[in-house]
Design a protein that fits this description.
Helix content: 25-40%
Strand content: 15-25%
CATH topology of the largest domain: Aldehyde Dehydrogenase, Chain A, domain 1
Number of domains: 2
Largest sheet: 7 strands, mixed
Distance between the termini: 57 Å
CATH superfamily of the largest domain: Aldehyde Dehydrogenase, Chain A, domain 1
CATH architecture of the largest domain: 3-Layer(aba) Sandwich
Structural class: alpha/beta
Length: 496
């Protein structure tokens, strides 16, 4: 599928914000241009929130939580809204598929595959209304006759969404927050606000009570005002580790709650029995996903030293064959980077890798047949030392580094020698060895012979890759506070 005509964004309210259940005028006339990365054309313009707009959104969410019906509803009642949201998301799939590639550069078929599962996230959390234990009886140990734990909503949530996979990340923040009974300010990325506006339209369509979901688009400075606002009980953030450190520091000043899904520099540990061509094909294909703009990408390839050259050759051969181009072209495997500054960043790291002495096996430049758009060639470096910048810092682009290891113990040390701990994988034909090595890798997810991230089970990182989890039951718990209740007499609605 190739689209060459001037596209129109299938969303409304681009000159407004969705606050307190209404489309409201912004406090200024400032706008943000959303640029299509494959063509460098302006796709649409959207209102830019200022401090006054953010404060208005926070105020609406605070009032909705403190005075509105939403937290007082039963979990089953809120689950009904979640199911309606999931159905509405499914109905808007075609609209999302027009927007997502034009904002982030994701390949249309990849977006298609991801969108197929997003409505299920809302259904999953709706199902938890009947299976999760929101109240449990406990035996008092310090007086009183009846004790219980009541798991109650944390309050007002500021959900800050990045540009690479907004519809997915909205779902795994919004669904558990709403089930818990929280109200939400959804702060969309200036580069990719379309998904958030579709969610605002959905909230309006299904009759979500006013103030339960509020949508604004803002830059970093105004986003910080959301984090600093004492009326916000919790921040749920996905983005860079640098921004995550800033958020954690601000929230610590007032002991605010937060979950952080941050950066990664994930390792693929290749054991000595692995078919290297199989591994290379898998790794090259995975790195095409969103042009490598994925926090959990397996970008450090740790291989036995005596097989290093063979691994580099296999990766270079496979990765160099990837066709780069229009995200809507069915013959293309990888689209552009999302922004000009992102391409500049990736090209800067490629120059750094060359200066550090890495072996450039393939790529390193811009595709010669593409004179427009923010494209970068798939790139492989060999003979990389783990202390170098290209091995330690998140590049967020299609750049793979191959690191030789003396033996299995050395490979594990290399894999763990990073400030990050988001993802990893073990490549071996021996499942028992894979399980043993997986247990020693300091990462929130470890796959076997593939790139895996599973929000259905739970996703998040060790070390500076984050705090908390998204997806699964673990993704619901951060939106709840445990309250201990001690009673002298047993009331009628006490849990058994």
């Amino acid at each position: 599928m190739t689209i060459t005509s001037e596209p129109q964004a299938p969303i409304k309210g681009l000159d407004k914000f969705f606050i307190d259940g209404q489309w409201v005028d912004p406090s200024s006339t400032d706008t943000i241009k959303v640029v299509e990365p494959a063509t460098e054309r302006v796709y649409f313009q959207i209102a830019e929130a200022k401090d006054a707009d953010m404060a208005r959104a926070v105020g609406a969410a605070r009032t909705a939580f403190d005075e509105g019906p939403w937290p007082k509803m039963s979990h089953a009642e809120r689950a009904g809204y979640l199911r309606a949201i999931g159905d509405a998301v499914r109905e808007r799939t075609d609209d999302v598929l027009q927007i997502w590639p034009r904002e982030s550069g994701i390949m249309y078929p990849v977006a298609q595959g991801m969108m197929s599962g997003i409505p299920d996230a809302y259904g999953y959390y709706a199902d938890l209304a009947g299976s999760f234990t929101f109240e449990s009886a406990e035996r008092p140990t310090a007086g009183g006759n009846y004790g219980m734990i009541s798991r109650e909503p944390v309050g007002v949530v500021g959900a800050i969404i990045p540009w690479n996979a907004p519809m997915t990340l909205i779902a795994y923040k919004l669904a558990p927050a709403l089930l818990a009974g929280c109200t939400v300010i959804l702060k969309s990325s200036p580069e990719a606000p379309g998904a958030s506006y579709i969610m605002a339209e959905i909230a309006e369509k299904i009759g979500l009570p006013p103030g339960v979901l509020n949508v604004v688009t803002a830059d970093r400075e105004v986003s910080e005002s959301l984090v600093r606002d004492v009326r916000v009980d919790k921040i749920a953030f996905t983005g860079s580790t640098a921004a995550g450190r800033r958020i954690a520091g601000i929230m610590a000043e007032r002991i605010g709650r937060y979950t952080l899904e941050l950066g990664g520099k994930s390792a693929a540990v290749i054991l000595d029995d692995m078919d290297l061509q199989q591994a290379a094909t898998t790794l090259s294909g995975a790195e095409c996903f969103l042009s490598g703009q994925v926090c959990s990408s397996l970008t450090r390839i740790v291989v036995p030293r005596h097989r290093h050259d063979e691994m580099v050759e296999a990766l270079a051969s496979t990765f160099s064959q990837v066709k780069v181009g229009d995200p809507f072209d069915s013959t293309v495997q990888m689209g552009p980077l999302a922004m000009e500054r992102q391409r500049d960043r990736v090209e800067g790291y490629i120059r750094t890798g060359i200066d550090e002495g890495a072996q450039l096996a393939t790529g390193g430049g811009r595709p010669k047949d593409l004179d427009r758009g923010w494209f970068v060639e798939p790139t492989v470096f060999g003979n990389v030392d783990n202390s170098w910048k290209i091995a330690q810092e998140e590049i967020f682009g299609p750049v793979l580094s191959v690191l030789p290891a003396d033996d299995e113990e050395h490979a594990i040390r290399i894999a763990n020698d990073t400030i990050y701990g988001l993802n990893a994988s073990v490549f071996t034909h021996d499942a028992d060895r894979a399980r043993e090595v997986a247990g020693r890798l300091r990462a929130g997810t470890v796959g076997h012979n593939n790139f895996h991230t599973d929000f259905g089970i739970g996703f998040g990182g060790f070390k500076q890759s984050g705090v908390g989890r998204e997806g699964g039951i673990a993704g619901l718990e951060p939106y709840l506070e445990n309250k201990t209740i001690i009673m002298d007499e047993k009331p009628k609605n006490f849990p058994s």
